Amino acid sequence: MTVTTTPTIEGKPIQDYLGIVTGEVIVGANLFRDLFANIRDIVGGRSGSYERILRDAREQAIQELQAECAALGGNAVVGVDLDYEVIGDTGSMLMVSASGTAVRI
């Protein structure tokens, strides 16, 4: 299935617009991951554990988006927008959301 941030897919005309589809994933913070990320903040460098969590959450949100599209009979999602939001009373949760328009090309 084609998933793109652009409103069209070059060379593939859109036959039907099927509606807005979304995928959301909420992941909790981990005490040990947070501890090591704080150490990285002090000494510098990238936090591989957080990067993996973000990547996995983004991929899961896109998979949900694709499943919703397929359920509507679509074979592509255009105009995809990805958002990241810290949620929870203490900011201990991260939400990744993906939204776009399901289409049949």
TrEMBL record:
Pfam families on file: YbjQ_1
Residue ranges of the TM segments: none
InterPro entries according to UniProt: UPF0145_dom_sf, UPF0145_YbjQ-like
Cross-referenced HAMAP family: UPF0145
Family: Belongs to the UPF0145 family.
Classification via NCBIfam families: PRK02877.1 (NF002776)
Name of this protein: UPF0145 protein GRI47_13790
Source organism of this protein record: Qipengyuania pelagi
